[in-house]
Amino acid sequence: MLEVRNLSKSFGRRTLWSGLNLTINGGEMLAVTGPSGAGKSTFLNCIGLLESPTSGQILYEGGDITRFSRRARCRFRRDVLGYLFQSYALIESATVADNLEIAVRNRRDRGSRCREALERVGLTGREKEKIHHLSGGEQQRVALARVLAKRPALILADEPTGALDKDNAAVVIDTLREMSDAGCVVIVATHSDYICGRCDAIFTVGSTEPEQVAQSGIKGI
Ligand SMILES: Nc1ncnc2c1ncn2[C@@H]1O[C@H](COP(=O)(O)OP(=O)(O)OP(=O)(O)O)[C@@H](O)[C@H]1O
């Protein structure tokens, strides 16, 4: 379970957002929306420990991750978190297989997990290709396969379909929905009404609590 309590973020004198509260359980998928510049990426980056909030708490399984030591932050990123960026964030000069294998710590099932993940995103047989030879849609499917192979409990996806055509976007959203249904906490920053409709709740950055889309346990606190 992830809880955000009274979270605020300012850059200098500019307050992006303040007093954010939400609770999201495993098995739930939350859309984070709001106008360009509202601070969606910054919100995800605070949860992903890439940025620090100005005040408030982010609790994961009861522990305040904003107070983690350097070592605990590394462990959290390594063991819990999966990040999917609009810009893919792959190692371009490396192969598809290299980009996936780096995400799986357990050597014993590394090969099978990577194969399964590539099959799920429709890239079986492409293991030896270099990332920079792939199309944008294929690169995002590799990034998605990397998250699948890693099997994180918390997935942060920042505009994951922003640069994709309809078919590739559908693979990404269907897969994130499946991972959520399998028990992950999934948070997606998006401008897309379609993606908002696939989520259990919508959180508009700038408001203080999420709005329900369907029956779900996500609630403001
Ligand atoms: N390190 C920083 N220092 C100062 N300002 C920053 C920093 N990072 C982000 N900002 C500003 O914070 C605001 C919110 O940025 P952010 O990328 O979180 O917005 P967003 O809602 O994700 O936007 P978009 O929908 O366009 O991606 C922007 O005006 C940005 O310039």
From TrEMBL:
Keywords on record: ATP-binding, Lipoprotein, Nucleotide-binding
Domain ABC transporter: 2-215
Keyword Phosphoprotein among UniProt keywords: no
Endpoints of the signal sequence: none
Protein name (database record): Lipoprotein ABC transporter ATP-binding protein
Matching InterPro entries: AAA+_ATPase (IPR003593), ABC_transporter-like_ATP-bd (IPR003439), ABC_transporter-like_CS (IPR017871), ABC_transpr_LolD-like (IPR015854), P-loop_NTPase (IPR027417)
GO molecular function: ATP binding; ATP hydrolysis activity; transmembrane transporter activity
Keyword Isomerase listed: no
SMART domains in UniProt: AAA
Protein species of origin: Spongiactinospora rosea
Highest taxon of the lineage: Bacteria
Annotated GO CC locations: plasma membrane
